Amino acid sequence: MPSTELTTKVTSGSPYQLDKNQVTRASSALLRHIKSKQEEKEKNATKKTLIGDNDEDEEDSPLHNEAVWLVLTTKKHVVDKNRLKPGKISIPHSLNSSPSLSICLITADPQRAVKNIVTDPSFPQDLTSRIDRVIGFSKLKARYQSFESRRQLLSEHDVFLADDRIIMRLVNTLGKIFYKSSKRPIPVRIAEIEKVDGKKVKKDPKQKNNNNSDEKSSAFASPLIVAKEIEKTLSCAPVQLAPATTASIRIGSSKFTSEQLAQNVEAVVKGLTEKFITKGWRNIKAIHVKGASTMAMPIWLASELWVDENDVLENNAEETKAIEGGKKRKSTGDDEKLLEDSKKTKKSKATEDDDEAASLAARKQKLQQQKEKALEDGKASISQNTGNATKAGKKKRQSTT
């Protein structure tokens, strides 16, 4: 019989690692489910266009290229600002391998320097053909102020790359239309970095060059380095954590095989634990994989819900012994006393209830007798009054006669 376990514990080594068999099983099951849903949609589709069906590659259509996400749940919130900055993790199987990919590159000012780099003869031609637009930050801020213009910009390109020096300023500039979608700008390093003996040299912001041409040429790296950084970024999974306990990272699509998806999962989890998640594996609660509209399938679950051992309260040994001893003493001699007391209280309550009932009955009988006596006295007084009245009337009639 096939195993029905959701997750399996690691038999050897540290428990803080993925089980490759579990990841492969979950990936293959998820891909089978997504493909079956795609086939159902194709069968149930009633509206089919007669013109232009063959113009677009079916494999690149949204129906055949559904995104697959890795959902990570942490035990504590990620609050470190450096870890909340947009980042990327290198993966073995790229998400942007299509030759018809449309790239928009957002750079720091001046944008003319980056355009010259992209059109340079030493820049790879296949990468130049995919970069459709290069726009500086100042022009982006001035030209795309309305919501409709930003939405149009979002629909015109597949991937947005941004200079890592201005990546945090783009949140207010691009707005929620970008940051609620899966096309958030991915940081890329295109600035020149000076190194001395293999170490980076930080520039003094107070020092400024008088020659503007030298400043423009030294602000960005050479065309070969920029091309290498862009290609490296395209083969990465973008990561942007929120100050919460749940994060979603796109790791593949429905075109991937289960082995490719499993390799991307391992690479992303390794990058998250080493760079983005505070305290690494100790802070991870669960890891799932899911499609855009499917259930989340677990691939790793933590056996404990705390991060540090100090978070767990331990009882003092003397207190536990005293509590156990007190329970034993109560169970030996005090139980009989408690039973006797409870019986006495039950009896006393029963006798009290009987006495109250008897007193109530006596009071009712006494009241009834008082009522009867009052009625008799009233009748006697009425009859006496009537007799006196008749005698007085007779005397008056005699006196008149």
TrEMBL record:
Residues annotated as transmembrane: none
Stretch list, region Disordered: 1-22, 34-60, 323-401
Compositional bias of kind Basic residues: 392-401
Source species, domain of life: Eukaryota
Stored Pfam families: Ribosomal_L1
Gene3D superfamilies xref list: 3.30.190.20, 3.40.50.790
Biased composition regions of type Basic and acidic residues, renumbered to the chain: 36-45, 323-343, 369-379
InterPro entries assigned: Ribosomal_uL1-like, Ribosomal_uL1/biogenesis, Ribosomal_uL1_3-a/b-sand
Name this polypeptide is given: Ribosomal protein L1
